[in-house]
Each structure stands twice: as structure tokens, then as C-alpha cells.
């Protein structure tokens, strides 16, 4: 895994539990990075794809649900 992708995954893994959608996740990433660029530019500059973001969020919430049981 490249360093940029690991960085984004670390941010996603640290997101608050109230983030449920991919749009909220991007908003959070932009806030953390203080990044004002468009999503397209963001992805072009070493970000992660929608499908990768969605999968990572699903994994995160599956893990949270498992822990809460």
C-alpha cells in the first residue's frame, strides 16, 4: 500500500462514528487535510477512489458493530 493511501485509510479509521455516507467521509477528509480542491482533483493527487472509500467505511462500521455486541 502506498503512503498516501495509508494516510487516507488512517484518517478514515479515526473518523467519528456519526459519519455514515461517502459524502460525509469526503467532507471529513477535506476538513482534516484543509483541502479545498474538487473531489476529482483530490483523487488525481493520490487520494482514494469512491469504491475504496466505501469499502473502508463499510469495514470500519462492521468492526464497530462487532465490538459493540
Written account of the structure:
The protein is mostly helical and 69 residues long. Helix content is 70%, strand content 0%. It has helices at residues 3-13, 22-33, 39-44, 50-68.
Describe the secondary-structure layout:
Blueprint: H1 3-13, H2 22-33, H3 39-44, H4 50-68
SSE string: HHHH
Portion of residues in helices?
55-70%
**Structural class category:** mainly alpha
Largest sheet: none
Count of domains: 1
Count of helix runs: 4
What is the rounded distance between the termini? 31 Å
Overall average pLDDT? 69
* Form type: globular
- Strands, total number: 0
What is the oligomeric state here? single chain
How much of the sequence lies in strands comes to under 5%
Radius of gyration: 12 Å
Q: Which ranges are low-confidence, i.e. pLDDT below 50, for 5 or more consecutive residues?
A: none
Short description:
The protein has 69 residues and is an all-alpha fold. The protein is built from four helices and no strands.
Q: Could you name the key traits of this structure?
A:
4 helices; globular
Amino acid at each position: 500500500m502506498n503512503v498516501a493511501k495509508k494516510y487516507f485509510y488512517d484518517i478514515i479509521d479515526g473518523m467519528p462514528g456519526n459519519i455514515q455516507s461517502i459524502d460525509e467521509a469526503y467532507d471529513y477528509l477535506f476538513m482534516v487535510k484543509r483541502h479545498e480542491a474538487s473531489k476529482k482533483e483530490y483523487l488525481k493527487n493520490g487520494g482514494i477512489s469512491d469504491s475504496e472509500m466505501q469499502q473502508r467505511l463499510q469495514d470500519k462500521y462492521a468492526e464497530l458493530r462487532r465490538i459493540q455486541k
